[in-house]
Amino acid sequence: AQSVTQLDSHVSVSEGTPVLLRCNYSSSYSPSLFWYVQHPNKGLQLLLKYTSAATLVKGINGFEAEFKKSETSFHLTKPSAHMSDAAEYFCVVSDAGNMLTFGGGTRLMVKP
Amino acid sequence: NAGVTQTPKFQVLKTGQSMTLQCAQDMNHNSMYWYRQDPGMGLRLIYYSASEGTTDKGEVPNGYNVSRLNKREFSLRLESAAPSQTSVYFCASSGPRTAVSYEQYFGPGTRLTVT
Lengths: 112, 115
Prior knowledge:
The structure holds 2 protein chains of 2 kinds.
Chain A: E1 3-6, E2 10-14, E3 19-21, E4 23-26, E5 32-38, E6 44-50, E7 56-58, E8 64-68, E9 73-78, E10 87-94, E11 101-102, E12 106-111
Parallel strand pairs in A: 2-12
Antiparallel strand pairs in A: 1-4, 3-9, 5-6, 5-10, 7-8, 8-9, 10-11, 10-12
Chain B: E1 4-7, E2 10-13, E3 19-25, E4 31-37, E5 43-49, E6 56-57, E7 64-68, E8 74-78, E9 87-94, E10 105-106, E11 110-114
Parallel strand pairs in B: 2-11
Antiparallel strand pairs in B: 1-3, 3-8, 4-5, 4-9, 5-6, 7-8, 9-10, 9-11
């Protein structure tokens, strides 16, 4: 069985400061991991994915995530937050087939 | 290339009414999915279809039925709506896992309220 825990339901940062959204996963298989972003009243957009290649994954809009097997973590970071980054972020795991398991989401707020 | 489209965008039903949510994709994907999104719970899989002609239950199938009409279309039906089915519904599609990118692509969602 697979599961995902997003450690913070809400994160608030000031514009121009770093972003850290934390994600831990559990999987009995070699997992694939994803981060999706959802802007208000919109669908989900893929930010980045890890599929057993490089452990540091770069995504769109300056986001990146590092897969750490020993810590079962896949935290999302960005060096400098922008107002347009305000959204809900989902960490997602897939360990077989195409089935995805979603974390509960982290709402990122960016203050001017 | 519209990706994944869903209709309607919004719907209000009374308890006991029925309705069908429509989903279509133009990416020639084999697999399609229906999720519901509730606050603090992420997305939960209702039903999926790994290929045309097959459907399987996901995590929360009770109260729903699906039809994979053809490769492009996958509909979700609520036979007798209940207030607990108030949610945002997302359809998604994906290519085969062996493809270079097999992530799921999501539609814009249907916001359903059952009173």
